[in-house]
Amino acid sequence: MAKIPHDRDKTKTGNAIAEVRYVPAEPDPPFPEEEAARSNIRDIAVAHKTFRIRLADTDEGRNAANMLIDRMYSWRGYTTSHQTPKSPNLITLMAMENHSVIGTISISLDSPIGILADETYEDEINILRSRGCRICEFTKLAFDPAVRSKQVLASLFHVAFIYAWHIRNCTDLLIEVNPRHRRFYKRMLGFKRYGQIKTNPRVNAPAVLLWLDLGYAEQQIQKFGGSSNHPGSEKSLYPYFFSHHEEEGIVHRLLNLNGDSREMVQ
Q1: What residues of the chain score a pLDDT lower than 70?
Q2: 27 upstream amide cis, omega within 30 of 0
Q3: Of residues 226, 109, 121, 115, the one with CA closest to residue 165
Q4: For residues 31 and 33, what is the distance between their CA atoms, to the nearest angstrom?
Q5: Are the CB atoms for 70 and 82 separated by under 8 Å?
Q6: Domains of the chain (ranges, CATH numbers)
Q7: Residue 118, SS3 per DSSP
Q8: Chain centroid to CA 190
Q9: 122 φ, ψ to 5°?
Q10: Cα separation of 6 and 53, whole Å?
């Protein structure tokens, strides 16, 4: 599985943040919604495909992301009808294959009005705030079930990380997940449990708060990023992240995309 660096890609990427060539995996790799995930599953080479990561910065893009979220949440039995509001403290990323959204994730930045996880875990999050942590939250993660590749998942996570760490200088990442997915995030990305199991009222389902030191994630990316063709004994998602050279191109694109760099870093 090869990622195409932006400055060496001969294909016009339009307003894409990243363009990635990948090999669909069979059998399924460990995605969060797959309870029987196993970290030793290998990708089997079949036809290559290409997807692009873009900002959902239009009503059309946000609606497309919401449709995927609603479809996947309904499939899992969660409360549906989600909307992604336009906010200076929230961005939504989409992974697109041709004109179809195959994955999405939102990055929410802490502000005076808080983050979504405050609704369930405000006391726990306030402890981090009291320590001076710069908090962000990854939320509304959804993937088309037909997509079976760790490359897609890792690439979308990495662009979200780049925005949080490099563009907005966040230090601590929070995510609410179903308790049965906790081990996936711990094993594949290094998250740690940061709260007791509670009911998330937004989806009417059990949830647990997980925490990740973004400094630790940066170390793992620098060590393993771009090494998916020769990961050695490393079983996390980090070998499927972009290389340092590719990461630099993504930072540049995020800062200059659509001429919004000043607005994004305010």
Answers
A1: 1-14, 24-47, 73-85, 257-266
A2: yes
A3: 109
A4: 6
A5: yes
A6: 3-256 (3.40.630.30)
A7: helix
A8: 14
A9: -60, -45
A10: 12
